[in-house]
Amino acid sequence: MRFFDYFSSPEFICKAVDFYNKFVNFIAIFMIPILMLTLLIAVGIIFYDLRLFVEYFLQYPSAQEYDKAFKLLVRNILNFFVLIELFKVFIDVLEYRRIRKRQIIEAGIVFVVREIILIVFEHRFTFTDLVGFGILLFSLGITYMLLEKSYLDYLRFEQRVITEREKKERSGLIAQRKDELKR
């Protein structure tokens, strides 16, 4: 029984939380340079693809070659936007120690829009693909709007509670001041 008492003791819990925080900070210190390097490589790939597109455009008279290079450039630019959204989620996890549902949904919306743009741009879509992506995008948008509405309602409620508390405090201070003036 003493074994379980040790694991439920406040000292052990404090040590475990401290170890967890140190571990998360170590991972953050390790991951942030990797994230920055990944973004720099993505930007380098975009510039390389842009150079290829310009080179194909100027050298080859066939539209097929620079069409392929342009599709590659568009794909990598859209991938870059998805990377930025995912990195925003990761940085938010490091900063606040939680995953925000709103940012996950934003990343999902960006990813779905990327896929829609790519399948339409490359002319490889079917009606069911577009309906499926439309339903997914619609449901993500509704979820995002409901989260925003609930957050705004929470802010209004919090403001109303603060306002009522301030009124009580002010009336208490006014009454206290009146009592002091009577003396």
What is the element layout, followed by pairings?
Layout: H1 2-7, H2 10-59, H3 63-96, H4 101-121, H5 127-182
Q: What fraction of residues sit in β-strands?
A: under 5%
* DSSP summary, beta strand count: 0
Largest sheet: none
Taking pLDDT < 50 over at least 5 consecutive residues as the criterion, the unreliable ranges are none
- Report the structural category: mainly alpha
**What shape does the CA trace take?**
elongated
Radius of gyration: 27 Å
- The SSE string, one letter per element, is HHHHH
Number of helices: 5
- pLDDT averaged over residues: 80
End-to-end CA span: 63 Å
What's the helical proportion of residues? over 70%
Molecular structure report:
With 183 residues, this protein is mainly alpha-helical. The chain has five helices and no strands. The protein has a domain of 99 residues. The chain is elongated and about 95 Å long. The N and C termini lie far apart (63 Å). 3% of the residues are buried.
Sum this structure up briefly:
The protein is mostly helical. It has five helices and no strands.
Task: List the main descriptive attributes of the protein structure presented here.
single chain; 183 residues; mainly alpha; 5 helices
